[in-house]
């Protein structure tokens, strides 16, 4: 069985790929497919960038980094839930106004 040679990507390409994931609304799998790279490779780059953001000097313990990442995930979920609640409130308010205006 032949082994595939590892492709080498420039730092600029890696940074652009990570930025597409971070700033876009597409998943790592979709961005990787669009770029023609393995999604695990892109995940590794994204994960490394997130770790560098959390602990640029590398001074935190693995437990502390994990705690920060867990809190960031929880924060993202809470923001998503709050956004949904705001949209639902606006929808029902508009629905209520339409019902009151038609009587």
TrEMBL record:
It comes from Cryobacterium sandaracinum. It comes from the Bacteria. Residues 61-88 form a coiled coil. The keyword Coiled coil applies. This is Transposase. Keywords: Coiled coil. InterPro entries: Homeodomain-like_sf (IPR009057), Transposase_8 (IPR002514). Transmembrane segments: none annotated.
